[in-house]
Design a protein that fits this description.
The chain is an alpha/beta fold. Helix content is about 35%, strand content about 15%. The longest helix is centred in the first third of the chain and has 15 residues, at about 10-25. The protein starts with a helix and ends with a helix.
C-alpha cells in the first residue's frame, strides 16, 4: 500500500487493502522465473529486524539457526523499505541496497504477500537474479489466498512456518513444482529465560497483584487479526472459571488504541470487571514482567501460523493453554503446553484480513475446555 494508504485509519486501511492488492498484481516482478537450488552457504535473510513483531523475531531466529548450521548469514532489514516505524534499532543489519555487496548464494525473505512483492522491489534486480530465492511464509488457514500464487511463481523454494502451513501451501499451489518445506521458527536457538522467584515477586509487586492471586494472561496484536486472536473468548472463559475471588487476568495489546471498534468490543466483554487489566499503547508492559507475573498463559486463538508467544511463555516456565488447531508440532510437544478442543466454523473476520474461499473454516475453541483448563491450572498453583 502507498504511504498515503498507510496513514489512513486502520478500518479504512483494511478496506483499501484488497484494492491495493489487485492493483499490485499488474506490477511486474523485478525477476523472472527462478531456476536455482538452495545451497545454504552465504544466506541473506530479509525481514523486519527492527520491529518488535513476531515476523521480526522469526527472521532473527532463522538467521541464528542458519549460522548454527554453518552458513554465513547477512541480516537485511526491511522495516524502512516497507514503510514501517523502527521500534528496535539495530546496528548489525544491512539495507536491501547494501545487500548487493554480499555475494549471497541464497536470499530468504520472511514476509507474506503482498509485502513479499514489495520487499523484492527494494533489491537490485541484477543481484536478485543471481540468487536462489526462498519465501518463508506463515498463514493461519488451511488454504493460502489466491493472489499468493503469483509470488510463488518467482520462488525457488517455499519455507512454511509449520507442517500445517506447508500442507496449506501444497494444497493451494498444485502447479508449484519446486520444494515446499516446513521450516518452523527455531525458537530453541534463543529460548526465553525462565522466570525466577525474585522476578515473579518483583513483577507482581510492580503490577499491584497479590502474591497469592491466580493470574492468567494473554498477549496479542490487533493488527495481526483481532478476531483470529479471539481475546473475548479469554475474557469469557476467565469470568466463567472464576466468577469471584482473587483471580486476575492480564491482557496485553499495545496497538489496540488504533482499533476503536475492537477496543469497544473488548471493553463490553470485560464489563468493568476490576480483576481484568488491559495494557495498551498508553500503559505498555514489557514481555519479561508480563510472563513473570503469570500462572498460566491463555491463548484461545482461532488459528496460528506458528505461535511464538506460546513457545516463549512455555520457555519462561509458564503453563500454556491454547487452541490445538494448526499448532506447530514443536509447540505441542513442549512441556507445559495444553491444547484444548475446538470446533471448525466458517471464517468471520470483520477486519477483512482473511478473505477465505467459499466454505473455508477456522477453529472455535470449546469454552468448556478453556474453563476446565483454567480451573485445573489454578488448582495446580494452590
Amino acid at each position: 500500500m502507498s504511504a498515503l494508504g498507510r496513514l489512513a485509519p486502520p478500518g479504512l486501511r483494511s478496506a483499501l487493502a484488497p484494492w491495493a492488492q489487485r492493483l499490485d498484481r499488474f506490477r511486474p516482478f523485478p525477476i523472472g522465473r527462478p531456476g536455482r537450488a538452495y545451497r545454504g552457504e552465504r544466506v541473506a535473510v530479509a525481514g523486519l529486524f527492527q520491529t518488535t513483531s513476531g515476523l521480526g523475531r522469526g527472521a532473527h531466529l532463522l538467521a541464528l539457526d542458519l549460522e548454527a548450521q554453518g552458513a554465513q548469514a547477512l541480516r537485511v532489514d526491511l522495516t524502512a523499505a516497507l514503510g514501517l516505524p523502527i521500534a528496535l534499532p539495530r546496528t548489525d543489519t544491512a539495507t536491501p541496497a547494501e545487500a548487493r555487496r554480499f555475494d549471497a548464494t541464497d536470499l530468504v525473505v520472511v514476509q507474506n504477500p503482498p509485502s513479499f512483492r514489495k520487499a523484492l522491489w527494494a533489491f537490485d534486480p541484477a543481484w536478485l537474479a543471481g540468487r536462489c530465492l526462498v519465501a518463508h511464509w506463515a498463514w493461519e488457514l488451511d488454504r493460502l489466498p489466491g493472489f499468493w500464487r503469483r509470488s510463488a511463481d518467482v520462488c525457488d523454494e517455499i519455507w512454511a512456518s509449520s507442517a500445517f502451513v506447508a500442507e496449506a501451501a501444497r494444497a493451494s499451489l498444485p502447479s508449484f513444482d519446486r520444494p515446499i518445506r516446513a521450516v518452523p521458527y527455531p525458537a530453541r536457538r534463543e529460548p526465553f529465560p525462565p522466570v525466577s522467584p525474585e522476578a515473579r515477586r518483583s513483577a507482581r509487586a510492580a503490577l499491584g497483584l497479590p502474591e497469592e492471586a491466580f493470574v492468567a494472561g494473554y498477549s496479542f496484536a490487533a493488527e495481526s487479526g483481532y478476531y483470529r486472536k479471539n481475546p473475548e473468548a479469554a475474557v469469557t472463559a476467565f469470568r466463567a472459571a472464576f466468577p469471584d475471588g482473587p483471580a486476575r487476568l492480564l491482557l496485553r495489546c499495545h496497538d489496540l488504541d488504533r482499533f476503536p471498534r475492537e477496543r469497544a468490543r473488548l471493553a463490553q466483554a470485560i464489563a468493568g470487571d476490576p480483576r481484568i487489566s488491559l495494557f495498551d499503547g498508553q500503559t505498555r508492559l514489557r514481555l519479561e514482567p508480563f510472563y513473570a507475573a503469570l500462572d498460566v498463559y491463555l491463548a484461545p486463538t482461532r488459528g496460528e501460523g506458528y505461535g511464538l508467544n506460546l513457545m516463549e511463555a512455555a520457555q519462561a516456565g509458564v503453563p500454556v493453554v491454547a487452541t490445538g488447531y494448526g499448532l506447530s508440532a514443536d509447540i505441542l510437544e513442549t512441556p507445559g503446553v495444553t491444547a484444548v478442543g475446538y470446533d471448525l466454523a466458517p471464517v468471520d473476520d470483520p477486519q477483512r484480513l482473511y478473505r477465505p474461499a467459499r466454505g473455508q473454516l477456522w477453529a472455535e475453541p470449546r469454552q468448556a475446555d478453556l474453563v476446565a483448563a483454567l480451573r485445573r491450572a489454578a488448582l495446580a498453583q494452590a
